Amino acid sequence: MARRPLPRILSSSSVSIARSREFARTAADNATDVLQPLITVTRGLRRLAAVGRRKWAETPKDRRGPLMFLVTACFLVVALIPYGPLLALITVMAAAAWKGRERTPARTGPTPAQLARLRALYEALVPYFSLPEDPSPLYAHGGEWAKAFDKFAFDGDGRLTRLRLSYPPYFTDGEAPSRALIERVLHAKSGRGREYHFAWDELDNKLVMRVLDALPTSIAAQRFITAPGETVLGFTDPDAVQRTMPVEDGMETRDASPVVWRTGPRSGEPHLLVAGRPGSGTTTLLRSIALQTLQQGDVLIVEGSGTGDYACLTGRTGVLAVECGLAGALAALEWAAHETERRLIATNRARQSGRPATDDIKRPLWILLDRPTVFGHLAAADGRTDPQELLQVPLRHGNAANVTVVVADQFDALDALSETVRTHTRTRVVLGPATPDQVEAVLGAPPHTTPPPQVPPGRGYVRLGVGPVLRLQVPATPDPYDDATPEALRQAVTALLPPRETPDPDPTPVVAIPACESVPGLSPAAVPVEG
Predict the structure, then answer these.
(1) CB 210 within 8 A of CB 162
(2) Quick one: pLDDT band at residue 31, thresholds 50, 70, 90?
(3) Over 60: is that where the pLDDT of 119 sits?
(4) What is the dihedral of CA 62, 66, 69, 70, to 10 degrees?
(5) Three-state SS for 126?
(6) For the segment 288-321, what is each residue's pLDDT rounded down to a tens digit?
(7) Which of 238, 294, 341, 438 could connect to 318 by a Cys-Cys bridge, CB 3.0–4.6 Å?
């Protein structure tokens, strides 16, 4: 059937209607342009009125009377002065025009470049957070990333600094290899060269990733505000611990978050093990501990490296000995074992008699060993006793005798440490560059952060007993006798050194150590040692 044309009257009416609509739209646009100032002023007056009503509602009732009297007085003054009403009208119109102006809305949401980054990160997580049998997968190729990424933040360079994402309930978040795999993907896709922290919330199936700021390395050795039995190992992130203390950082004083290690009879982690590579800062940590403990205790130092890093402590008040030879180390550790036994017997007798312990038993005794495995090789070659065997009594019973043992060695020598040392040193520190597997092998738990791009001396991780793994930066405590030490750090360490004791006129090198047997009451004697 042929299509019949529309009547002329209908076709002409539709054209006229379209023209009328176009004319009306043009007239409305022109009227809007002409009346734009009036619209702006009206909008401003409405906003000013809203502000006035809100201020009036927020004013307490007992102050509304004086406020009304003040406003009325202002109106009377304006009405009586020449040209007052006109100036008031101009002022109100100007304020309304300013208040009612159209403002450019602030940009919300990510930029196109940020959207591309989020999309790429979402697509990279699809193979790990999806299963083929999932009917409605949260992660799918070409899916909506906004459903998986709850919150995110970028820095000025457009790099991701914080991300909170959701993952499906069937993901094995309770297994360390699965979590490590996701952390490696996020680390690679978010940009290397920064240190990231990962917080897993297994209850709500959430993962929060954030970029960590570098720990300050400018805090030098100083008198820290601590209680008896507390030692500052270093400083960590502000949200990792619930305590802060004032420290001198350069020329200013600020609050820092310390990692405090508590020792003594009531401590659950009385001994410390430090591991690291050469130049990582293990000797710096032991030197820092020695300077802090000399304020209220005695220190016995056994140095296996033989580099003289503790020469500044030789002959100081409270330093019983600084041994660098095998014979001296064996004599000093044998005395330490007997001293631990003497303290135990004296403490037991004091408790049985109902009397407090004497001051010589209450005074802490610290045994610091730097690289003791070197002496183990020398002792085996010379047919002597391994010095680590003499540490069994201080390690097993040092908690009750107020004796603390600190052992520092390198990664490649940890296997040479005795089983007693590894068992009783439940406070662990790892310094210097280390892989996550090395950190987990020493601390017993993996770190929740990625390896830092640059590792300064004294930078690493710490774990107090069964607590969480924390980042750590040891206070700068260099050797003041080293020519490469800056003058400011040299003066800081020198100011903490105790005064020297009066030198012995006898030229024979001796060290005044009480050589006590397990029976209390024996007089102290001087034990000759190797130079």
Answers:
(1) yes
(2) low
(3) yes
(4) -140
(5) coil
(6) 999 999 998 999 999 988 888 999 999 999 999 9
(7) 294
Whole-angstrom distance, CA of residue 453 vs CA of residue 519: 55
Q: Which of 129, 193, 109 is nearest to 159 (CA)?
A: 193
Q: Are 309 and 368 in contact (CB under 8 A)?
A: no
Q: Would you say 431 and 282 are in contact if contact means Cβ atoms under 8 Å apart?
A: yes
- Give per-residue pLDDT as tens, 374-409: 998 888 888 898 999 999 999 999 988 999 999 999
Pairing between β-strand 403-410 and β-strand 365-370 as defined by DSSP bridges: parallel
Give the pLDDT of residue 417. Answer: 92
Q: How many CA atoms lie within 13 A of 120 on its CB side?
A: 14
- Phi and psi torsions of 109, nearest 5°: 90, 165
DSSP β-bridge partners for residue 163: 152, 209
Distance between CA atoms of residues 227 and 59, nearest Å:
51
Phi-psi region of 229 (alpha: psi -120 to 50; beta: other; left: phi over 0): left
Using CA atoms, how far apart are residues 176 and 439, in angstroms rounded to an integer?
14
* Locus of tokens 């450019």: 104
Cβ–Cβ under 8 Å, residues 366 and 289 = yes
Q: Provide the b/e sequence for 500-522 (b: ≥16 CB within 10 Å).
A: eeeeeeeeeeebebbbbeeeeee
Residue position matching structure tokens 């159209």: 102
Torsion of CA 279, 440, 451, 289, to 10 degrees: -40
The dihedral built from the CA positions of residue 376, 379, 383 and 387, taken in this order, carries a sign that is negative
Q: What is the rounded CA–CA span in Å between residue 35 and residue 102?
A: 14
Is pLDDT of 274 > 50? yes
Around 335, how many Cα atoms within 13 Å sit in the side-chain half-sphere?
29
* 481 Cβ contact partners less than 8 Å away, ≥ 6 residues apart: 308, 311, 312
> What does the alpha-carbon distance between residue 168 and residue 149 come to, in Å, rounded to a whole number?
12
Q: What percent of the chain has pLDDT over 90?
A: 50
Using the predicted structure, report yes or no on whether residue 474 has a pLDDT greater than 90: yes
pTM > 0.85? no
